[in-house]
Amino acid sequence: MVRRTGISALILAAFLALAAEAGAGEVTCSVRYLSADHVYLDVGSGAGLAVGLPVRVVRDGQVIAELEVVYTAEQSASCKIISQTGEIRTGDSAVFQAVVPPADTPAEAVVPVTSRTRANFQTSSGARPGSGPRVTGTLAVTWDHMDQDPAPGLESNLYTLPFRVRVADLGGEMEIRARGAVRRIQRKNYGASTPASEWRNRIQEVALVRRGRDLTWHFAVGRVGGVTTATAGPLDGISFSGRLGSGIRLGAFGGFAPEWGDLGFGTEDQLAGVTFHWNQQTGPTGMLDMIVAGIGRYTQGEISREYVTMTTTWRADRRLSLLQAAEVDINRGWRKEGGVAGVTMSSVALTGRYRFGRGLDVNLGYDDRVPVRTWETRSLPDSLFTEAGRVGWRAGLNLRTSGGMGLNLSGTLRDDDQTRATNTSWNVRAYAPDWPAARVTLDASVRGFDGTYMSGWAPMLGVSKVTTGGLSLRLEGGYFGYNGKLSDQTRSNTWAKFGLAQDFAVHWSVGGDYRRDWGDDIAGNNWYLEMRYRF
Protein backbone atom coordinates (compact mmCIF):
# COMPACT_ATOMS: atom_id res chain seq x y z
CA MET A 1 0.00 0.00 0.00
CA VAL A 2 1.43 3.40 -0.96
CA ARG A 3 2.12 5.53 2.11
CA ARG A 4 0.34 8.83 2.43
CA THR A 5 3.52 10.77 3.16
CA GLY A 6 2.56 13.36 0.55
CA ILE A 7 -0.61 14.22 2.48
CA SER A 8 1.37 14.21 5.72
CA ALA A 9 3.96 16.59 4.31
CA LEU A 10 1.29 19.00 3.06
CA ILE A 11 -0.43 19.08 6.46
CA LEU A 12 2.91 19.60 8.19
CA ALA A 13 3.83 22.43 5.84
CA ALA A 14 0.48 24.12 6.42
CA PHE A 15 1.01 23.94 10.15
CA LEU A 16 4.49 25.48 9.95
CA ALA A 17 3.13 28.30 7.83
CA LEU A 18 0.55 29.08 10.49
CA ALA A 19 3.21 29.02 13.19
CA ALA A 20 4.53 32.35 12.04
CA GLU A 21 1.76 33.99 14.10
CA ALA A 22 1.02 32.70 17.76
CA GLY A 23 -0.49 32.58 21.36
CA ALA A 24 -2.75 31.11 24.22
CA GLY A 25 -4.43 31.82 27.47
CA GLU A 26 -4.32 28.53 29.33
CA VAL A 27 -3.33 27.53 32.86
CA THR A 28 -0.41 25.15 33.33
CA CYS A 29 0.05 22.96 36.41
CA SER A 30 1.75 19.61 37.06
CA VAL A 31 0.89 15.95 37.60
CA ARG A 32 1.38 15.39 41.34
CA TYR A 33 0.98 11.62 41.47
CA LEU A 34 -0.72 8.67 39.81
CA SER A 35 -2.98 5.92 41.11
CA ALA A 36 -4.22 2.86 39.26
CA ASP A 37 -6.98 4.75 37.46
CA HIS A 38 -6.59 8.43 38.30
CA VAL A 39 -4.17 11.27 37.70
CA TYR A 40 -3.84 13.81 40.53
CA LEU A 41 -2.91 17.44 39.80
CA ASP A 42 -1.20 19.91 42.12
CA VAL A 43 -3.91 22.58 41.73
CA GLY A 44 -7.65 22.48 42.26
CA SER A 45 -10.73 24.66 42.29
CA GLY A 46 -8.66 27.60 43.54
CA ALA A 47 -6.88 27.67 40.18
CA GLY A 48 -10.10 27.46 38.13
CA LEU A 49 -10.49 23.69 37.81
CA ALA A 50 -14.00 22.24 37.87
CA VAL A 51 -15.47 18.78 37.48
CA GLY A 52 -15.83 17.83 33.83
CA LEU A 53 -13.13 20.12 32.47
CA PRO A 54 -10.82 18.55 29.88
CA VAL A 55 -7.09 18.55 30.72
CA ARG A 56 -4.20 17.83 28.38
CA VAL A 57 -0.96 16.25 29.59
CA VAL A 58 1.87 17.74 27.56
CA ARG A 59 5.51 16.70 27.35
CA ASP A 60 8.02 18.34 25.01
CA GLY A 61 5.28 20.17 23.15
CA GLN A 62 3.29 17.02 22.41
CA VAL A 63 0.00 15.94 23.98
CA ILE A 64 0.50 12.47 25.44
CA ALA A 65 -2.87 12.14 27.22
CA GLU A 66 -6.35 13.62 27.48
CA LEU A 67 -7.85 13.76 30.99
CA GLU A 68 -11.13 14.80 32.52
CA VAL A 69 -11.59 16.20 36.01
CA VAL A 70 -13.78 13.95 38.18
CA TYR A 71 -13.50 15.81 41.50
CA THR A 72 -11.67 18.79 42.95
CA ALA A 73 -10.51 20.16 46.28
CA GLU A 74 -9.21 23.69 46.82
CA GLN A 75 -5.58 22.80 46.12
CA SER A 76 -5.81 19.45 44.30
CA ALA A 77 -7.83 17.61 41.68
CA SER A 78 -8.29 14.07 40.43
CA CYS A 79 -8.70 13.25 36.76
CA LYS A 80 -9.78 10.24 34.78
CA ILE A 81 -7.75 9.19 31.73
CA ILE A 82 -9.82 9.53 28.55
CA SER A 83 -7.08 8.65 26.09
CA GLN A 84 -3.29 8.47 26.02
CA THR A 85 -0.45 7.86 23.58
CA GLY A 86 2.39 7.74 26.10
CA GLU A 87 3.16 6.99 29.74
CA ILE A 88 2.07 9.76 32.13
CA ARG A 89 4.75 10.65 34.66
CA THR A 90 4.84 12.62 37.89
CA GLY A 91 5.93 16.16 37.03
CA ASP A 92 4.44 16.22 33.53
CA SER A 93 2.76 19.49 32.55
CA ALA A 94 -1.05 19.58 32.61
CA VAL A 95 -2.84 22.28 30.63
CA PHE A 96 -6.46 23.38 30.96
CA GLN A 97 -8.76 26.33 30.32
CA ALA A 98 -9.73 27.67 33.76
CA VAL A 99 -13.38 28.31 34.45
CA VAL A 100 -14.30 31.84 35.44
CA PRO A 101 -14.10 32.12 39.27
CA PRO A 102 -17.33 32.95 41.14
CA ALA A 103 -18.22 36.62 41.50
CA ASP A 104 -17.33 36.59 45.21
CA THR A 105 -13.91 34.99 44.57
CA PRO A 106 -11.09 37.54 44.14
CA ALA A 107 -8.74 37.08 41.20
CA GLU A 108 -5.85 36.71 43.65
CA ALA A 109 -7.24 33.29 44.58
CA VAL A 110 -6.31 32.03 41.13
CA VAL A 111 -3.11 33.75 40.04
CA PRO A 112 -0.71 32.84 42.89
CA VAL A 113 -1.32 29.10 42.47
CA THR A 114 -0.26 29.10 38.81
CA SER A 115 2.76 31.28 39.51
CA ARG A 116 3.93 29.10 42.37
CA THR A 117 3.59 25.93 40.26
CA ARG A 118 5.61 27.35 37.41
CA ALA A 119 8.33 28.60 39.76
CA ASN A 120 8.94 25.07 40.98
CA PHE A 121 9.96 23.93 37.50
CA GLN A 122 11.22 26.98 35.64
CA THR A 123 13.37 29.02 38.01
CA SER A 124 16.96 28.24 38.82
CA SER A 125 17.96 26.55 42.05
CA GLY A 126 19.79 29.58 43.42
CA ALA A 127 16.77 31.21 45.07
CA ARG A 128 18.28 30.80 48.54
CA PRO A 129 22.00 31.55 48.21
CA GLY A 130 24.14 30.52 51.17
CA SER A 131 21.45 28.38 52.79
CA GLY A 132 23.01 25.03 51.81
CA PRO A 133 21.52 22.11 49.86
CA ARG A 134 17.74 21.91 49.75
CA VAL A 135 15.94 18.58 49.22
CA THR A 136 12.44 18.38 47.75
CA GLY A 137 10.42 15.63 46.14
CA THR A 138 7.89 12.86 46.66
CA LEU A 139 8.10 9.29 47.92
CA ALA A 140 5.24 6.78 47.81
CA VAL A 141 4.45 3.18 48.65
CA THR A 142 1.79 1.37 46.58
CA TRP A 143 0.22 -2.07 46.61
CA ASP A 144 -1.73 -3.43 43.64
CA HIS A 145 -3.39 -6.81 44.23
CA MET A 146 -5.35 -8.90 41.71
CA ASP A 147 -7.00 -12.29 42.14
CA GLN A 148 -9.39 -14.31 39.96
CA ASP A 149 -11.93 -16.80 41.22
CA PRO A 150 -12.63 -19.63 41.43
CA ALA A 151 -10.31 -21.00 38.72
CA PRO A 152 -7.57 -20.80 37.61
CA GLY A 153 -6.95 -19.03 40.92
CA LEU A 154 -4.48 -16.51 39.54
CA GLU A 155 -3.12 -14.00 42.01
CA SER A 156 -0.55 -11.22 41.71
CA ASN A 157 0.82 -8.53 44.01
CA LEU A 158 2.75 -5.54 42.72
CA TYR A 159 4.66 -3.51 45.32
CA THR A 160 6.02 -0.20 44.06
CA LEU A 161 8.18 2.51 45.57
CA PRO A 162 8.00 5.48 43.16
CA PHE A 163 10.25 8.42 43.94
CA ARG A 164 11.14 11.86 42.67
CA VAL A 165 13.97 13.77 44.40
CA ARG A 166 15.63 17.10 43.73
CA VAL A 167 18.68 18.30 45.68
CA ALA A 168 19.10 21.99 44.81
CA ASP A 169 21.42 24.83 45.88
CA LEU A 170 24.60 22.80 45.42
CA GLY A 171 26.55 25.80 44.15
CA GLY A 172 27.17 26.97 40.62
CA GLU A 173 23.46 26.53 39.92
CA MET A 174 23.99 22.74 40.07
CA GLU A 175 21.47 20.25 41.43
CA ILE A 176 20.85 16.51 41.56
CA ARG A 177 17.66 15.07 40.06
CA ALA A 178 16.40 11.52 40.45
CA ARG A 179 13.11 9.85 39.55
CA GLY A 180 11.96 6.31 39.00
CA ALA A 181 10.34 3.37 40.73
CA VAL A 182 11.44 0.22 42.54
CA ARG A 183 8.97 -2.57 41.73
CA ARG A 184 8.52 -6.11 43.02
CA ILE A 185 6.01 -8.54 41.47
CA GLN A 186 4.81 -11.73 43.17
CA ARG A 187 2.54 -14.25 41.43
CA LYS A 188 0.66 -17.47 42.20
CA ASN A 189 -0.65 -20.18 39.85
CA TYR A 190 0.71 -18.59 36.66
CA GLY A 191 2.48 -21.72 35.46
CA ALA A 192 6.11 -22.80 35.21
CA SER A 193 6.95 -20.40 32.36
CA THR A 194 6.07 -17.31 34.43
CA PRO A 195 8.37 -16.34 37.34
CA ALA A 196 6.75 -16.48 40.78
CA SER A 197 8.55 -13.27 41.72
CA GLU A 198 10.74 -10.71 39.98
CA TRP A 199 12.05 -7.15 40.19
CA ARG A 200 11.13 -4.64 37.50
CA ASN A 201 12.85 -1.41 38.49
CA ARG A 202 12.72 1.66 36.28
CA ILE A 203 15.26 4.41 36.90
CA GLN A 204 14.22 7.23 34.59
CA GLU A 205 16.69 9.90 35.72
CA VAL A 206 19.67 10.16 38.07
CA ALA A 207 21.82 13.09 37.03
CA LEU A 208 23.86 16.08 38.09
CA VAL A 209 22.12 18.96 36.32
CA ARG A 210 22.62 22.63 35.63
CA ARG A 211 19.45 23.89 34.00
CA GLY A 212 17.32 27.04 34.27
CA ARG A 213 15.42 29.37 31.99
CA ASP A 214 17.75 32.30 32.65
CA LEU A 215 21.05 30.37 32.51
CA THR A 216 23.35 30.81 29.52
CA TRP A 217 24.46 27.18 29.42
CA HIS A 218 22.85 23.91 30.51
CA PHE A 219 24.61 20.70 31.49
CA ALA A 220 23.63 17.21 32.68
CA VAL A 221 25.60 14.03 33.33
CA GLY A 222 24.33 10.61 34.45
CA ARG A 223 21.01 9.12 33.39
CA VAL A 224 19.86 12.24 31.62
CA GLY A 225 16.27 13.38 31.22
CA GLY A 226 15.11 16.69 29.82
CA VAL A 227 13.05 18.50 27.25
CA THR A 228 15.56 18.57 24.42
CA THR A 229 16.75 14.94 24.75
CA ALA A 230 13.32 13.39 25.43
CA THR A 231 12.69 12.41 21.80
CA ALA A 232 15.82 10.21 21.94
CA GLY A 233 14.58 8.36 25.03
CA PRO A 234 16.63 7.59 28.17
CA LEU A 235 20.34 8.31 27.94
CA ASP A 236 23.24 7.23 30.15
CA GLY A 237 25.78 9.90 29.29
CA ILE A 238 26.08 13.66 29.00
CA SER A 239 24.17 16.54 27.43
CA PHE A 240 25.08 20.19 26.95
CA SER A 241 23.37 23.23 25.45
CA GLY A 242 24.13 26.93 25.18
CA ARG A 243 22.06 30.00 24.44
CA LEU A 244 22.92 31.60 21.11
CA GLY A 245 20.42 34.42 21.28
CA SER A 246 17.02 35.40 22.60
CA GLY A 247 14.98 32.19 22.86
CA ILE A 248 17.48 30.06 20.87
CA ARG A 249 19.57 27.18 22.24
CA LEU A 250 21.90 24.77 20.47
CA GLY A 251 23.02 21.54 22.17
CA ALA A 252 24.52 18.08 21.84
CA PHE A 253 24.31 14.81 23.77
CA GLY A 254 25.90 11.36 23.73
CA GLY A 255 26.17 8.13 25.68
CA PHE A 256 24.51 4.73 25.85
CA ALA A 257 20.86 3.68 25.59
CA PRO A 258 19.69 1.71 28.68
CA GLU A 259 17.87 -1.60 28.53
CA TRP A 260 14.47 -1.18 26.94
CA GLY A 261 12.24 -3.32 29.17
CA ASP A 262 13.08 -2.05 32.64
CA LEU A 263 15.46 0.88 31.98
CA GLY A 264 18.35 -1.12 33.41
CA PHE A 265 22.04 -0.34 32.94
CA GLY A 266 24.65 -2.23 30.96
CA THR A 267 23.86 -2.01 27.22
CA GLU A 268 26.36 -1.27 24.45
CA ASP A 269 23.89 0.60 22.24
CA GLN A 270 25.38 4.01 21.51
CA LEU A 271 23.25 7.14 21.26
CA ALA A 272 24.21 10.63 20.08
CA GLY A 273 22.51 13.72 18.76
CA VAL A 274 22.31 17.48 18.33
CA THR A 275 19.40 19.74 19.29
CA PHE A 276 17.95 23.10 18.31
CA HIS A 277 15.41 24.71 20.67
CA TRP A 278 13.52 27.90 19.80
CA ASN A 279 11.11 29.47 22.29
CA GLN A 280 9.53 32.81 21.55
CA GLN A 281 6.67 34.87 22.94
CA THR A 282 4.53 36.29 20.15
CA GLY A 283 2.28 39.07 21.30
CA PRO A 284 0.87 39.53 24.79
CA THR A 285 -0.53 36.00 25.07
CA GLY A 286 1.15 34.05 22.27
CA MET A 287 3.88 31.43 22.41
CA LEU A 288 5.84 29.39 19.88
CA ASP A 289 8.07 26.53 21.09
CA MET A 290 9.96 24.31 18.64
CA ILE A 291 12.54 21.56 19.25
CA VAL A 292 14.44 19.92 16.38
CA ALA A 293 16.77 17.00 17.14
CA GLY A 294 19.05 14.92 14.93
CA ILE A 295 19.54 11.50 16.58
CA GLY A 296 21.67 8.47 15.83
CA ARG A 297 21.51 4.99 17.42
CA TYR A 298 24.27 2.45 16.80
CA THR A 299 24.62 -1.22 17.81
CA GLN A 300 27.89 -3.17 17.61
CA GLY A 301 29.34 -0.49 15.38
CA GLU A 302 26.46 -0.58 12.89
CA ILE A 303 23.69 1.89 12.26
CA SER A 304 20.50 1.02 14.09
CA ARG A 305 18.57 4.17 13.26
CA GLU A 306 19.32 7.77 12.25
CA TYR A 307 16.46 10.23 12.23
CA VAL A 308 15.32 13.82 12.78
CA THR A 309 12.46 14.76 15.10
CA MET A 310 10.53 18.00 15.39
CA THR A 311 7.95 18.96 18.01
CA THR A 312 6.18 22.30 17.95
CA THR A 313 3.64 24.02 20.18
CA TRP A 314 1.84 27.13 19.01
CA ARG A 315 -0.79 29.01 21.00
CA ALA A 316 -2.63 32.14 19.98
CA ASP A 317 -5.48 34.52 20.76
CA ARG A 318 -6.52 32.71 23.97
CA ARG A 319 -8.52 30.47 21.66
CA LEU A 320 -6.36 28.53 19.22
CA SER A 321 -3.58 26.06 20.04
CA LEU A 322 -1.75 23.69 17.69
CA LEU A 323 0.61 20.83 18.49
CA GLN A 324 2.82 19.00 15.99
CA ALA A 325 5.26 16.09 16.14
CA ALA A 326 7.10 14.43 13.26
CA GLU A 327 9.96 11.99 12.60
CA VAL A 328 11.99 11.72 9.40
CA ASP A 329 14.32 8.75 8.95
CA ILE A 330 17.65 9.03 7.15
CA ASN A 331 18.42 5.65 5.56
CA ARG A 332 22.05 4.62 4.98
CA GLY A 333 23.84 1.29 4.74
CA TRP A 334 21.65 -1.74 5.40
CA ARG A 335 18.63 0.53 6.04
CA LYS A 336 18.60 1.44 2.35
CA GLU A 337 18.32 -2.17 1.19
CA GLY A 338 15.30 -3.21 -0.85
CA GLY A 339 14.94 0.08 -2.70
CA VAL A 340 14.08 2.17 0.36
CA ALA A 341 14.37 5.91 -0.24
CA GLY A 342 17.23 7.79 1.36
CA VAL A 343 14.83 9.96 3.38
CA THR A 344 11.40 8.80 4.56
CA MET A 345 8.81 10.33 6.87
CA SER A 346 8.04 7.69 9.50
CA SER A 347 5.44 9.59 11.52
CA VAL A 348 3.56 12.84 11.75
CA ALA A 349 0.96 13.88 14.31
CA LEU A 350 -1.04 17.12 14.43
CA THR A 351 -3.57 18.30 16.96
CA GLY A 352 -5.53 21.54 16.88
CA ARG A 353 -7.89 22.97 19.49
CA TYR A 354 -10.17 25.99 19.12
CA ARG A 355 -12.18 27.60 21.91
CA PHE A 356 -15.30 29.36 20.68
CA GLY A 357 -16.18 30.68 24.11
CA ARG A 358 -16.18 29.77 27.78
CA GLY A 359 -18.58 26.92 27.15
CA LEU A 360 -17.48 25.37 23.86
CA ASP A 361 -14.23 24.10 22.37
CA VAL A 362 -13.45 21.64 19.60
CA ASN A 363 -10.34 19.68 18.66
CA LEU A 364 -9.15 17.84 15.58
CA GLY A 365 -6.14 15.56 15.21
CA TYR A 366 -4.35 13.59 12.51
CA ASP A 367 -1.82 10.73 12.83
CA ASP A 368 0.24 8.87 10.25
CA ARG A 369 2.65 6.32 11.72
CA VAL A 370 4.61 3.30 10.53
CA PRO A 371 6.77 0.88 12.55
CA VAL A 372 10.47 1.61 12.14
CA ARG A 373 13.00 -1.11 11.38
CA THR A 374 16.09 -1.07 13.63
CA TRP A 375 19.24 -3.17 13.88
CA GLU A 376 17.52 -5.55 16.33
CA THR A 377 14.46 -6.03 14.06
CA ARG A 378 16.19 -6.04 10.64
CA SER A 379 15.61 -9.80 10.16
CA LEU A 380 11.83 -9.67 10.71
CA PRO A 381 9.48 -10.07 7.72
CA ASP A 382 8.81 -6.95 5.65
CA SER A 383 5.05 -7.35 6.16
CA LEU A 384 5.44 -6.44 9.84
CA PHE A 385 6.59 -2.98 8.74
CA THR A 386 4.89 -2.31 5.40
CA GLU A 387 1.46 -3.55 6.54
CA ALA A 388 1.40 -2.43 10.16
CA GLY A 389 1.05 1.31 9.71
CA ARG A 390 -1.94 3.36 10.67
CA VAL A 391 -3.48 6.57 9.48
CA GLY A 392 -6.23 8.14 11.49
CA TRP A 393 -8.29 11.18 12.35
CA ARG A 394 -9.72 12.08 15.74
CA ALA A 395 -12.14 14.82 16.70
CA GLY A 396 -13.81 16.03 19.85
CA LEU A 397 -16.26 18.58 21.20
CA ASN A 398 -16.55 19.84 24.79
CA LEU A 399 -19.66 21.72 25.87
CA ARG A 400 -20.11 23.32 29.33
CA THR A 401 -23.02 25.27 30.75
CA SER A 402 -22.74 28.24 33.11
CA GLY A 403 -23.83 25.93 35.93
CA GLY A 404 -20.91 23.58 35.32
CA MET A 405 -22.77 20.76 33.58
CA GLY A 406 -21.00 19.40 30.55
CA LEU A 407 -21.01 17.09 27.57
CA ASN A 408 -17.95 15.61 25.83
CA LEU A 409 -18.11 13.97 22.41
CA SER A 410 -15.16 12.34 20.65
CA GLY A 411 -14.49 9.88 17.87
CA THR A 412 -11.73 8.39 15.72
CA LEU A 413 -11.38 6.98 12.20
CA ARG A 414 -8.33 4.83 11.50
CA ASP A 415 -7.23 3.06 8.33
CA ASP A 416 -5.44 -0.27 8.81
CA ASP A 417 -2.74 -0.96 6.20
CA GLN A 418 -2.93 -4.74 6.57
CA THR A 419 -6.69 -5.23 6.22
CA ARG A 420 -7.45 -2.10 4.16
CA ALA A 421 -10.35 -1.56 6.54
CA THR A 422 -11.49 1.54 8.43
CA ASN A 423 -11.85 1.17 12.21
CA THR A 424 -14.01 3.55 14.22
CA SER A 425 -14.45 4.41 17.88
CA TRP A 426 -16.55 6.96 19.75
CA ASN A 427 -17.16 8.24 23.26
CA VAL A 428 -19.96 10.27 24.87
CA ARG A 429 -19.67 11.55 28.44
CA ALA A 430 -21.95 13.81 30.46
CA TYR A 431 -21.43 15.18 33.98
CA ALA A 432 -23.41 17.26 36.46
CA PRO A 433 -21.49 18.85 39.38
CA ASP A 434 -23.34 19.71 42.59
CA TRP A 435 -26.15 17.37 41.60
CA PRO A 436 -28.16 15.84 43.14
CA ALA A 437 -26.55 17.56 46.17
CA ALA A 438 -23.79 20.04 46.96
CA ARG A 439 -20.23 18.75 46.46
CA VAL A 440 -21.61 15.69 44.65
CA THR A 441 -20.97 15.01 40.97
CA LEU A 442 -22.89 12.56 38.81
CA ASP A 443 -21.36 11.44 35.52
CA ALA A 444 -22.09 8.87 32.85
CA SER A 445 -20.37 7.74 29.68
CA VAL A 446 -20.80 5.34 26.77
CA ARG A 447 -17.93 4.17 24.56
CA GLY A 448 -18.07 2.07 21.45
CA PHE A 449 -15.84 0.67 18.72
CA ASP A 450 -16.16 -1.16 15.42
CA GLY A 451 -12.94 -2.76 14.22
CA THR A 452 -11.67 -5.32 11.78
CA TYR A 453 -11.99 -8.28 14.14
CA MET A 454 -14.56 -7.20 16.72
CA SER A 455 -17.03 -4.54 17.81
CA GLY A 456 -18.44 -3.60 21.17
CA TRP A 457 -19.59 -0.97 23.62
CA ALA A 458 -19.07 0.01 27.29
CA PRO A 459 -21.46 2.17 29.37
CA MET A 460 -20.43 3.55 32.80
CA LEU A 461 -22.16 5.45 35.62
CA GLY A 462 -20.32 7.15 38.49
CA VAL A 463 -20.86 9.46 41.44
CA SER A 464 -18.20 11.47 43.32
CA LYS A 465 -18.33 13.26 46.66
CA VAL A 466 -15.85 15.68 48.23
CA THR A 467 -16.35 16.33 51.93
CA THR A 468 -15.60 19.61 53.64
CA GLY A 469 -12.54 17.94 55.15
CA GLY A 470 -11.08 17.20 51.70
CA LEU A 471 -11.95 13.49 51.57
CA SER A 472 -12.71 12.46 47.98
CA LEU A 473 -15.02 9.49 47.47
CA ARG A 474 -15.85 7.80 44.18
CA LEU A 475 -18.33 5.01 43.33
CA GLU A 476 -18.74 3.77 39.78
CA GLY A 477 -19.88 0.75 37.85
CA GLY A 478 -20.23 -0.37 34.29
CA TYR A 479 -20.46 -3.01 31.62
CA PHE A 480 -18.50 -3.92 28.54
CA GLY A 481 -19.44 -6.36 25.84
CA TYR A 482 -18.10 -7.22 22.41
CA ASN A 483 -18.74 -9.44 19.41
CA GLY A 484 -16.01 -11.31 17.55
CA LYS A 485 -16.44 -10.97 13.80
CA LEU A 486 -14.35 -14.02 12.91
CA SER A 487 -15.72 -16.48 15.45
CA ASP A 488 -19.13 -14.84 15.90
CA GLN A 489 -18.66 -15.03 19.66
CA THR A 490 -20.29 -12.62 22.13
CA ARG A 491 -18.67 -11.78 25.47
CA SER A 492 -19.99 -9.63 28.32
CA ASN A 493 -18.53 -8.31 31.58
CA THR A 494 -19.75 -6.20 34.52
CA TRP A 495 -17.74 -4.32 37.13
CA ALA A 496 -18.05 -2.01 40.13
CA LYS A 497 -15.45 0.09 41.92
CA PHE A 498 -15.16 2.23 45.03
CA GLY A 499 -12.25 4.63 45.67
CA LEU A 500 -11.16 7.34 48.07
CA ALA A 501 -8.32 9.85 48.48
CA GLN A 502 -7.37 12.14 51.35
CA ASP A 503 -4.69 14.78 51.90
CA PHE A 504 -3.27 15.16 55.41
CA ALA A 505 -1.79 18.58 56.15
CA VAL A 506 0.83 19.55 53.58
CA HIS A 507 3.00 16.46 53.28
CA TRP A 508 0.93 13.27 53.49
CA SER A 509 -1.80 11.81 51.29
CA VAL A 510 -3.41 8.39 51.00
CA GLY A 511 -5.66 6.83 48.42
CA GLY A 512 -7.04 3.53 47.32
CA ASP A 513 -9.77 1.72 45.49
CA TYR A 514 -11.42 -1.67 45.25
CA ARG A 515 -12.81 -3.16 42.04
CA ARG A 516 -14.93 -6.27 41.53
CA ASP A 517 -15.41 -7.90 38.09
CA TRP A 518 -17.96 -10.45 36.93
CA GLY A 519 -18.16 -11.87 33.45
CA ASP A 520 -16.86 -14.01 30.64
CA ASP A 521 -13.34 -12.54 30.52
CA ILE A 522 -12.53 -11.96 34.17
CA ALA A 523 -14.13 -12.59 37.55
CA GLY A 524 -12.22 -11.43 40.58
CA ASN A 525 -11.02 -8.63 42.80
CA ASN A 526 -8.52 -5.81 42.47
CA TRP A 527 -7.21 -3.77 45.41
CA TYR A 528 -5.03 -0.69 45.12
CA LEU A 529 -3.57 1.28 48.05
CA GLU A 530 -1.16 4.21 48.04
CA MET A 531 0.53 6.36 50.67
CA ARG A 532 2.55 9.37 49.51
CA TYR A 533 4.86 11.80 51.29
CA ARG A 534 5.88 15.16 49.83
CA PHE A 535 8.99 16.82 51.22
Written overview of the protein:
With 535 residues, this protein is mainly beta. It has 3 helices and 29 strands. The chain has helices at 5-18, 111-122, 383-386; strands at 27-34, 38-41, 54-59, 62-72, 77-84, 93-96, 134-148, 155-168, 175-188, 197-199, 202-210, 217-224, 235-245, 248-256, 270-282, 286-299, 302-316, 320-330, 343-357, 360-369, 390-400, 406-416, 422-433, 440-450, 454-466, 472-484, 490-504, 508-519, 524-534. Strand 17 and strand 18 form a beta hairpin. Residues 1-5, 7-25 and 100-129 have low confidence and may be disordered.
Strand-helix topology:
Layout: H1 5-18, E1 27-34, E2 38-41, E3 54-59, E4 62-72, E5 77-84, E6 93-96, H2 111-122, E7 134-148, E8 155-168, E9 175-188, E10 197-199, E11 202-210, E12 217-224, E13 235-245, E14 248-256, E15 270-282, E16 286-299, E17 302-316, E18 320-330, E19 343-357, E20 360-369, H3 383-386, E21 390-400, E22 406-416, E23 422-433, E24 440-450, E25 454-466, E26 472-484, E27 490-504, E28 508-519, E29 524-534
Antiparallel strand pairs: 1-2, 1-6, 2-5, 3-4, 3-6, 4-5, 7-8, 7-29, 8-9, 9-10, 9-11, 11-12, 12-13, 13-14, 14-15, 15-16, 16-17, 17-18, 18-19, 19-20, 20-21, 21-22, 22-23, 23-24, 24-25, 25-26, 26-27, 27-28, 28-29
